[in-house]
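Ticket #4471: structure output looks truncated?

Reporter: J.K.
Steps to reproduce: submitted the chain below (385 residues) through the standard prediction queue, then opened the result file.
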Amino acid sequence: MHIQTILTNYSSFQEQTLTNRFFKHEDILPLIKQLPPTFTISTLGNSVKGRSINAVKWGNGKTKVMLWSQMHGDEATGSMALFDLFNFLQQDNQTVKLLDENCQLLMIPMVNPDGAAVFTRRNAQQIDINRDFIQTASPEAKILKQIRADFEPNFGFNLHDQTTLWSVDETLKPATLSYLAPAYDKALSVNQTRENAMLVIADMFKELDPLLPQHIGLFDDEYEPRAFGDNFQHAGTSTILIEAGGYPNDPEKQQIRKYYFASILSGLTSIASKSYENQNTANYFAIPQNNKQIFHMMIHNLILDGIKVSVGVNYDECPNDNGMSTYKSYSIQDIGDLSFCDAYEVYDAQHCQLKGTITFNKAADFELLKDERSILAFKDGILTV
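Returned output as attached by the reporter:
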């Protein structure tokens, strides 16, 4: 079944209870517990604060695939996509049959439940779990490391979110999705394990690029000796990184999750059918690179100190104390010639009046008026108009 056909029926398996990025451990436990007997549920261990870290097994095939999400508590798109996948795997179609006959999936939808509780990247010890492979000081890292050793997966899907400021080279468009076969050494060598991951990604890109043209990039290829993906690749698990970035007018990533799900499914189908064996690594390396040529906001034709400039404004997304929402703190990130850049929102300051000051690397604190009407205003980094 073609991925576009599957997505036309997306609403039939989209997990309807997950509508934003702020769901918690207690929200997903009932969803896991209600899975039918074709799924095997197990508790792998507990987080620092005693929350269970659960695994879901499905499928009767020989090829083992491990998928894990939300190592970073504020990166929830992969988790939403996994719950969509759980629902999809309960449908009766040829793709589900192909996966069942050829793959055994082990899926961990929330590795860092303590981080998810307060919507922060790190765990309750303030440790970045994805930089804890070597020391394994966190219980979450110990659990993830051990389950890979026990399960011995042939393939792995490492599911993350990236900043919305990544763009796709030569497109000036947000990198809505990014893929990578992580390096296993500093030389960025390619052995059969890593090559297999590259070939699966080439298949994924072939399927997804027509759905998201110019919005898919290749994530930064830099060896990180403390990261799980790099070390799992070294251990013989062909590891595929998926990152969810930005998409216009989709702050809670409900559109992105659909394409994220499609990425996972196309990768699994490639593995189950072995179509990746007919791919070429040249198609992997042809995927455009990520870069940073977009801003959250950009203002053109602004007169500062007697010269006409463009101004790039970005925000940091900060969790509120309840862990159920965020606030945005805006700052001035560039001033000058930004003709080679784009932004999610673009303003033309021609014939506008500026009130306040614009200072590089400082909080946005100004107002832009046109015909005495405020069209854009910030106070101490907070957007007011």
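Triage note (M.O.): checked the attachment and the full token line is present. The domain at 3-291 is CATH 3.40.630.10 (Aminopeptidase).
Status: closed, working as intended.
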